[in-house]
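A further point concerns the way the authors explain their paired sequence and structure data. Showing the layout once, in full, would remove most of the difficulty. For illustration, here is how one protein appears when written out as sequence plus structure tokens:
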Amino acid sequence: MSAEVIHTVMLEQERCGESLAATRSRLLLSVVLWRTGETEQAIAVCKPAILRAVKQHLRRSLLDAGPELLSLLRHIHQQQTSDAMFNRAIAALWTTLAPLCLKTPRRWHRD
């Protein structure tokens, strides 16, 4: 249910050209899908948002998505089925976010 609502909001944001809000919604939706075991859908929703977030340096949006996003990214990276551009984006995220995650509360470090 919540995934459907977030998906509807995300589509409307994209339609209206609200790219930052749409990126945040995509990240949130990917986390919801990941939590509910819909891994392939989570990956499909996550990829465009991650690429945009890396390109536009949206660190706060990535951190706001929570530790589950990092868990999803770790899963994607371990699958070795990602395309090269996405793997570079994930590598850039680790470089950027790792120092920030080390300074955040313990909840960021759970699996």
Observations:
- The chain has one domain: 2-109.
